[in-house]
TrEMBL record:
This is Uncharacterized protein. InterPro entries: P-loop_NTPase.
Amino acid sequence: MEENLKLQQIYGTADDKIELIDNVSIPITRNSVFGLFGQKSSGKTTIQNKIVKEIVDRNKKLNQYDLDNPFIVKNAPITNVFLLSKSANSDMSTFLNAETKSKTVIDLRAFPDGMDQFIKQLYEFSDSIIANLKLQCQLRFNIKSKQIQEKILLFTQQRRKRVDDREIDLLFQVSKQIDLVKNKYPYLKVKETNQTVCNTMKLLYELYQQKYDGTCLRKHSIIIQIDDTSASKFLSGAAQTNLFTEFLTLTRHFGIYTMLINCHSITLFQGQRRQSINNYILLQGLKLEQVENLFDDLGLVNKNFSKQQFLQEYQNNIGYNAALDQNEKYKYNSMYIMLLPKKQIFLNLTKKIY
């Protein structure tokens, strides 16, 4: 699904106050993977942080979560932002502390196996949530049964202190198992919207002298940032593994709203890994030879837009300029390439050229 993401007043560091983007909209896709490429100080972290903050802020206003289809997350807040870096002292940590309830800044130096170890932990987290969502779907289905509702009501009216009914007891045990997950991840709680289900669950808990909190479990919606000052070296090892490739291609199943990867080199991502990234932002600071094969690799060739035009636009507008001194070398110019749902190219996130 394509959406417009408005980025307003993006600046560089507090010292230089260089304006990057002002009041423009760019197309993004849910379940996307962004690759931001450029040399050190070219603006990768600045753009990455702004994109994440805008997505989090926009989704805060959404609360239409469909409990009957819990595996489809369309209109619900972001639940987790994971920042992976070789240094946890990132300016993004301030944003996480201030803006999100679930903040996770991960220092990859604590993981001997680097990215692979984090992916395995995310697998375990996702599997646990999805397994309990399946139980919850079955629980809610059973609770909607007239027969179950009448039985629970009858037991309540009889004021039974002990429920000798295997079916009702099983429903309660399943519900308590789901409660354990809700309590472990309180940011995944959502209000039960079906009043009949809510009322029946209250009666069910009363049979066991407990109180139902009126909530259900929701699926997680994750943003992952890979922001590393030595990203090329860090990812070169992880990107060789099948686990990392699988991770890139299964973003939807992991509940990943979007993933952003900062890197110094395009050539690091080859073959299947390169095809897995469907949004690229090429920043000033990359030499022309670093991007010259990208046009063919991504299938951007078109009778109305040639490879030579692509390279010319890049060279004229955002290409590496060794003649500039160190202070003027990076002006945060960018070429944004989007592959899905349709191929598009923007200069500086404003002028569409393809």
